[in-house]
From TrEMBL:
Stored InterPro entries: Thr_synth_N, Thr_synth_N_sf, Thr_synthase-like, TrpB-like_PALP, TrpB-like_PALP_sf
GO biological process, any: threonine biosynthetic process
Stated name of the protein: Threonine synthase
Domain Tryptophan synthase beta chain-like PALP residue range list: 97-412
Family: Belongs to the threonine synthase family.
Uppermost EC category: lyase
Lineage: Bacteria, Bacillati, Bacillota, Erysipelotrichia, Erysipelotrichales
E.C. number(s) listed in UniProt: 4.2.3.1
One cellular component (GO) term of this entry: cytoplasm
Boundaries of every Threonine synthase N-terminal domain copy: 5-79
Modified residues (N6-(pyridoxal phosphate)lysine): 111
Top-level taxon of the source organism: Bacteria
Keywords: Pyridoxal phosphate
Length: 494
């Protein structure tokens, strides 16, 4: 049986894995989802596998039959070629929570988990399809996707990459990481606008007839490095299994016992990957969806209403400053049992009116598996301080959201299921906020890194060492309305 991918909105003929990777987004504006049943995994058989072999088992459930050894080779490149330290995803303890550290890759944030592999998926798929066109990757970023995609795609033959970031909406470190990227096929552009504006423009670029015609003329096609690309989601399923199996190997839980995951969420790609792991047989009791002051997901999970007509806040957890959470569309698709007409009508409503509401029955199905909550910026800082003082563990601002929301969940429910906190970034990516949380004092970004290190002795991740002195190579800034024209110009220049 062929494993095909179809649009959540039903308007595209299903395509295979390679085309799904290359295309990035469905042609009708929907997101690509598996059109086949999730493969159930035998946990016992996975128990002894290292990260690469585990990734191979999980990922090949989504790739064409007979490709397992090819996937193993790609997984080796991504996870066993020196890009990650500390065994890819180490599991630590902080208070009552087990912390899965997803930030040991080459940009010190969880986006590396998928973006170390996506470029390999891309070149692999180009080869499988005998594709001779160049692929232009467009990425909108709230800070972390940009750098992880740049590192992943830089100097990869057959690809060029354009990254759009909100000029005032990312941390100083995130910005410095991006604008200092070397490589002959990369370009980083600041935009006047927020992440949602950038993401919308990129989605529009994929749908644009004018760009499509230009692409044909110049022998190039567009693809996405955002979590709208199914190639971002699939590698993220692996670390849910890995975290669980680590707890079993440590003797913390018995094989088959349930756990919870608390997930700092924005575009909802991380949490959705966990839900897919559950469909593949991982024993998960609940997912706790954690948001910052941009709490649109909290409201959705509590009321079934997705209302994007609200103020956008810039917070101290900027990678989660998002109002249009793309991957929620995939969750809704699964929760309405694949009724694409229903998904399409919700998304049409969202585009037209800025709001949609799911029915009570669907909401109940969702609430049976997901809880949700949010933290204010002050609560983020308080959580960082308390967890450090009480447990000696240093959280970044995003991971603190996951921690704090879990605490509230625990107070409300008394649920004693062992819970894994997904840690999405190193504290050194947001050093000003973390330093302020611990000391009450504000400091300049690089001073804060040094002083945080002196204060806590927490290791500075290798990608951030010496970052201050790197040369700024990308200075372009455009308006959000200019993104499409900008892409058109770059295609013409090819
Ligand atoms: C991207 C990101 C998130 C949000 O992840 P989603 O998959 O978009 O929900 C949370 N924290 C950090 C540090 C991130 O970079």
């Amino acid at each position: 049986m062929d494993k095909l991918y179809k649009s959540t909105r039903g308007g595209q003929t299903p395509i295979d894995f390679y085309n799904a990777i290359l295309q990035g987004i469905a042609s009708d504006g929907g997101l690509l989802v598996p059109d086949f049943a999730f493969e159930k995994k035998d946990l016992h058989a996975l128990l002894k596998l290292d990260y690469v072999d585990l990734a191979t088992e999980v990922i090949s459930a989504f790739t064409p039959d007979g490709t397992k050894e090819e996937i193993r080779a790609l997984a080796k490149e991504a996870y066993a070629s020196g890009l990650f330290d500390e065994g890819v995803v180490p599991l630590k303890k902080a208070g009552g929570l087990y912390v899965a550290e997803l930030f040991h890759g080459q940009t010190a944030a969880f986006k590396d988990m998928a973006l170390s592999l996506l470029p390999h998926f891309m070149t692999y798929s180009l080869k499988k399809k005998g594709e001779n066109r160049e692929v232009m990757i467009l990425a909108a970023t709230s800070g972390d996707t940009g750098k992880a995609a740049l590192e992943g795609f830089k100097d990869v033959p057959g690809t060029t990459i354009k990254v759009f970031y909100p000029i005032d909406g990312v941390s100083n470190i995130q910005k410095q990481q991006m604008v200092t990227t070397t490589g002959n096929n990369v370009e980083v552009v600041g935009i006047h606008g927020n992440f949602d504006d950038a993401q919308r423009a990129v989605k529009e670029a994929f749908a644009s007839a004018k760009l499509k015609a230009l692409c044909e003329e110049h022998n190039v096609f567009l693809s996405s490095a955002n979590s709208i690309n199914i190639g971002r989601l699939i590698p993220q399923i692996v670390y849910y299994f890995h975290s669980y199996l680590t707890l079993v190997r440590d003797g913390t839980i018995e094989l088959g016992h349930q756990v919870n995951f608390t997930v700092p969420s924005g575009n909802f790609g991380n949490c959705l990957a966990g839900w897919i792991a559950k469909q593949m047989g991982l024993p998960v009791h609940r997912f706790i969806v954690a948001s910052n002051k941009n709490n649109i997901l909290t409201d959705f999970f509590k009321t079934g209403e997705y209302d994007a007509r609200r103020e956008f806040y810039k917070t101290n957890a900027p990678a989660m400053d998002i109002l249009v959470s793309s991957n929620l569309e995939r969750l809704v698709y699964f929760m309405v049992n694949g009724d694409t007409a229903k998904v399409k009508s919700f998304m049409d409503e969202l585009n037209k009116d800025g709001i949609y509401r799911i029915d009570e029955e669907t909401l109940k199905t969702i609430q049976d598996q997901f809880s949700a909550g949010f933290l204010s910026e002050e609560e983020v800082l308080e959580t960082i301080k308390t967890v450090y003082v009480d447990h000696g563990y240093l959280l970044d601002t995003h991971t603190a959201v996951g921690y704090g929301v879990y605490e509230e969940y625990f107070r409300n429910t008394g649920d004693t299921t062992p819970t894994v906190l997904l840690s999405t970034a190193s504290p050194y990516k947001f050093p000003e906020s973390v330093y302020e949380a611990l000391t009450g004092k504000k400091e300049d970004v690089y001073q804060a890194i040094d002083d945080l290190h002196k204060l806590t002795a927490v290791e500075i991740p290798y990608p951030l060492k010496g970052i201050k002195d790197r040369k700024v190579l990308h200075k372009g800034v455009i308006d959000k309305e200019e993104i499409l024209d900008f892409v058109a110009k770059r295609i013409e220049e090819l």
